[in-house]
Amino acid sequence: MKGWTSVGGRRAPGTGDVLRTTVLLAGALVVLAPIVWAALSSLKSPTELAQRPPSPLPRDPSLDNYTEALTSFEFGHYFLNSAIVTVAATVLTLTVNSMAAFALAKYNFRGRDTLFLVSLATIMIPLQVIFLPVFQVVSSLGLVNSLWGMIIPAAATPTGVFLLRQYMLGLPDDLIEAARIDGAGEFRVFWRIVLPLCRPALAVLAIFSVIWRWNDFLWPLIVAQDDSTYTLPVALARFSGQLVVPFHLVLAMSVLSIVPVLLIFLVLQRQIIAGIARTGLR
């Protein structure tokens, strides 16, 4: 095989494989470097952070920054707001997108392909273009300055519909038809057969949705009118905009805001890889 040499009857990586691995490792280090730096710096005292040049490792690691951030910044309140918005929006996104994808993948009706192409074309529309009409709708419904105003507008996403539809196209039609012949209704077919088979794709969409909602800044900034409905990114931005910025607290809160996304990725990483691979093959 090209790029491999035989050593003792075993395949050993060739020059091309070593080069690719080196490039990938270098890219991973570049991506992880800011996160590692923030995590290490969050363990430093304010005095140590102010030193120049800064030391790469904390001389006296301490969790005091995290304790102070949790007690003096109302971090728990903003964290809870972000968690509610993220979980509710993700559940709503999975529900709406999976139902739309099922209809576009397994139902034959006039204009199905045109409807799918139109929904897919909306990906090219920048979100900033539709902020004003969406805000007017949210305002008319009385959802401004509420968490529901951040949850509902992002329920349907063309990316999620595309991902799930492409995955559902690979499901055998005979299995669905057999369930219908046995007397299963459409909702039961969808809930008991289609969704369990789509777990990898649902996991991919779930992690994407969690990242989008958890890190979303602009739309919550527009909808939230006071600090009672601030999500974590908005609260951190307001906190960082003060005249005197306590960087030790900003670092601690930034690290805490990253932890949930990392945990979800570690739990769902197998499903994510399988879902992306299966969708790509389709």
Describe the structure.
With 282 residues, this protein is mostly helical. It folds into 2 domains: 4-62, no CATH class; 65-281, MetI-like (MetI-like fold), CATH 1.10.3720.10. Helices cover 71% and strands 3% of the residues. A two-stranded antiparallel sheet has the order 1-2. A hairpin with a 2-residue loop joins strand 1 (4-7) and strand 2 (10-13). Helix 1 (15-41) packs antiparallel against helix 14 (247-281) and helix 4 (75-106) crosses helix 8. The model has no long low-confidence stretch (mean pLDDT 83). It is a multi-pass membrane protein. Keywords: Cell membrane, Membrane, Transmembrane, Transmembrane helix, Transport.
Strand order of the largest sheet: 1-2
- How much of the polypeptide forms β-strand, as a percent range? under 5%
Low-confidence stretches: none
**How much is the average pLDDT?**
83
The assigned structural class equals mainly alpha
Q: Please identify the top-level CATH class of the largest domain.
A: Mainly Alpha
User: What would the principal axes of the Cα set say about the shape?
Assistant: globular
CATH architectural arrangement of the largest domain = Orthogonal Bundle
CATH homologous superfamily of the largest domain - what is it? MetI-like
Number of domains: 2
Instruction: Determine the fraction of residues in helical runs and give it as a percent range.
Output: over 70%
